[in-house]
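Section handout, structural biology tutorial.
Before the tutorial, make sure you can parse a SMILES string by hand: atoms, branches in parentheses, ring closures as digits. In the record below the ligand is NAP, and the chain has 488 residues. In the tutorial you will relate the predicted structure tokens back to the input. Do not try to memorize them.
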Amino acid sequence: MPKEQCSIITIFGGSGDLARRKLYPSLYQLFRRGVLGEHFAVIGTARRPWTNEFYREIVAGSLENEPNTSADAVQRFASHFYYQSHDVTDADHYVTLKNLSNKLDEQYGAGGNRLFYMAMAPRFFGTIASHIRSEKLLSPSGYNRLIIEKPFGRDFASAKELNDSIGAAFNEDQIYRIDHYLGKEMVQGLLALRFTNPLLTPIWNKDYISDVQITLSENVGVEERAGYYETAGALRDMVQNHIMQLIAYVAMRQPDTFTPEAVHAAKNELFANLPVLTPEQAKRDWVRGQYVAAGDQPAYREEDGVASDSQIETYVAGRIMLSDSRWAGVPFYVRTGKRMPRKATEISINFKPLEHNIFDAVGCNEARSNRLTVFVEPEQGYTLTLNGKTMGSEYALRQDPLSFRYPQDKIDEAPEAYERLIQDALMGDQTNFTRWQEQDATWKYVDVVRQAWDDDAPLATYAAGSHGPAEADQLLERDGFKWAEEFD
Ligand SMILES: NC(=O)c1ccc[n+]([C@@H]2O[C@H](COP(=O)([O-])OP(=O)(O)OC[C@H]3O[C@@H](n4cnc5c(N)ncnc54)[C@H](OP(=O)(O)O)[C@@H]3O)[C@@H](O)[C@H]2O)c1
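Predicted structure of the complex:
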């Protein structure tokens, strides 16, 4: 058993939704695959007064829909779990937590390693970090790592305050900021596609690419998250984090090697090329929208927990022009929304058209620009469209898709994003987590858009179940483009 995989894992928010839906199933799969052996224990903490036995039943219950379970494996797994009733604002309770950690470390031979997981409302993150330090929960012998959930702040000022507070207890190389999109197979696969194909690598720039489009659409509405969503909106919820991270993976230069340091260096350079927008540019290049009732689907303002005059955007589309010479003049169009026709995450790389088509002279002018589409989810794979000849004696052109999709059984077997990310944190690999500089740059960019909207910008509307507001189409039409038809 590699020493790195021995650990005392403390989950703050051990009774919460994230822990039950994502963390326990992911830890189980790591246990089943032998990534977690016998030298680990999990301490779940929250205020409610549960016993260890009850907590283990909750953990076992969270695995009901997991593949590859057996009663014996679940029981062995759950026996590693301990519950500590704890109010994170109460300093004394951290002493109890420390004593339990030390006891379990000895019992399980965890080698002094500590992984802290903040699966609670962000307003508690700073308090927890400062108590971890002041009550000396950090282990002097093994590693100390902190996994922290999104949202990482709600603007630059609050993100900085949060970062300073966790920075008082943990160094940057001990902090694992979750953006679960970085744990997705095809997001990780994008780097392989870009950097191992001599066919693609030399043409991945402004000379050959006309525009890039990124779509993150959801078909659901706000569901039970109205309380959070009413204070966030799509710009904060999806653009500052997931969409910006996807842009980085599409546009960053090739890292020198595939190490966390080299990947983050390339990302930082890219984010340094996010332009500083004026309010006028922000209003011109960003569209916000909110869904209104259509058919049997209610309006956002009619959803439970939503104010009847809410100005929160459920849809965002934007155009980002990077100030990087490799991408000069190439618009990155992004969009994300709720109550769209379907759930999909797709990235389209649209290549420039032919400068001279020899077939034009014979009236054969159907040649189109090539397009590479990366399907992140629910389909996983990619399609490259090429022009070819239609079969027969006439000379006509048509578009042929060269497609690869992972089969569904492989997708079902593959580790889920949280499973990959927790494994990475256990192994000490920060590649797929975000660094402070990335948060800094992306919040500063997004804050300008938010401010411009707050000052004065229309809130467009779109029918629930539609592709979004007409203003989002006009954003592209203005430049002579349109949204990739794969999505339509
Ligand atoms: N749920 C998701 O799918 C999801 C997805 C992405 C990100 N996240 C992020 O993950 C974090 C957790 O979300 P969640 O949905 O799991 O929230 P949640 O279901 O509301 O859980 C909150 C947890 O915090 C505990 N808690 C609250 N106040 C406490 C206190 N003073 N002292 C100790 N424990 C306290 C609660 O237990 P007690 O009431 O027993 O104290 C509960 O275990 C948030 O940052 C959220 O943004 C969640």
